[in-house]
Amino acid sequence: MSDVVPPEVRPKPAVPAKPPNVGAPSPSSPFPPQGPGIGGGGSVSGLPPSAIPVPIVNHGHSVGHNIGHGVGHVAGHVGGHTAAHNGGHGHGGSHSSGGGSTLLGYIGIDTIIEQMRKKTMKTGFDFNIMVVGHSGLGKSTLVNTLFKSQVSRRSAGWARDEKIPKTVEIKAVSHVLEEGGVKMKLTVVDTPGFGDQINNDNCWEPISKYINEQYEKFLKEEVNITRKKRIPDTRVHCCLFFITPTGRSLRPLDLEFMKRLSHSVNIIPVIAKSDSMTIEERQEFKQRVRKELEMAGIEFYPQKEFDEDMEDKSDNDKIREAMPFAVVGSDKEYPVNNKRVLGRKTAWGIVEVENPNHCEFAQLRDFLIRSHLQDLKEVTHNIHYETYRAKRLNANGGLHPISSNDTQESNL
Question: Rounded distance, CA 270 to CA 250, Å?
Answer without folding.
Answer: 12
